[in-house]
Amino acid sequence: MRITRVVSAALLTVGLAAGPAAADSTPSPSPSDDSAAPTSAGTSFRTATEIDQGRTATANASAGDYLYWSFPADTGQRPTVRATVKLPAEHAAQTWQIDVYDGLRRRQACQYGAQTRTAAAGTESVELACVLRTVRAWSEPWANDPLPGTYYLRLTAVGVRTADLGQPVAAEVRVESEDMGGAAAVDGRLAEPLIPGVAMAQRQDEDEDEEDSGVPAVLSAIEPDDGWSSGRWSDRWVWTASGAVLAALAGIGGYALTRGSGRPRHVPPSA
């Protein structure tokens, strides 16, 4: 009975400890107010328009333009990029494509999704999607793993006839992430997120007294709502400690069941 009470109390403690961790692993609700979302797109990496996850950004452009946006992605997130392009009433077949690059301008492959699609002649719109790999807290220098920091989204038409170049199009992009929790946690972290815009901001401060110095684009102003969490404790540590406690209790219970009741009183001890 004593062993049963001890095991029950330990299981209750483990459940209470694992409850908050399990709650933290659920995706946080994304903001649904698109009133503050940007209505334009950049034309290069340096002028990419910053967007927050969970908001729909729009832009009016012409067929053949390169449209750029940037968004933050943190450790444990698996971003999903979606884009919708509304085409003119009359057009020939067009092929549209979205590409995602990390802060080091490395192209990130899509796990799945229609990254490239061809719109037949007369089609009103085309929808694209790209589900990236889970963002890691750190990686080897030779690896191409996604790391926390700024990511760049490029939307363009890769197959447009000359007659369709310059026709007006309307684009909508939205980025959402799923929190993978402790299953994607690794030991280690980055000292700083991959945000190259920090260097450009410093250079702007140094050259502000020069009359001929331009105003470079600063892409380091965006970050997750809760800040960068690279290297923080994850629920993986809670489940690891819980497994250790259960293993210890199982050992104690097994010993208590197999040791027997001891030597009977009427049996003398062996010499």
Search tags:
single chain, 271 residues, alpha+beta, 5-stranded antiparallel beta sheet, 11 strands, elongated
How would you explain this protein's 3D organization?
With 271 residues, the chain is of the alpha+beta class. It has three helices and eleven strands. The longest helix has 24 residues, at 235-258. The radius of gyration is 28 Å and the shape is elongated. Mean pLDDT is 77; it is low at 10-14, 16-30 and 198-213.
**Biggest β-sheet description:** 6 strands, mixed
Total strand count, please? 11
Order of helices and strands: HEEEEEEEEEEEHH
What is the percentage of strand-forming residues? 25-35%
Query: What structural class do you assign from the helix and strand content?
Result: alpha+beta
The whole-number mean of residue pLDDT values reads 77
Low-confidence stretches: 10-14, 16-30, 198-213
Shape: elongated
Count the DSSP helices.
Answer: 3
Spatial separation of the terminal alpha carbons: 34 Å
Instruction: Provide the gyration radius in Å.
Output: 28 Å
Q: Work out the helicity level.
A: 10-25%
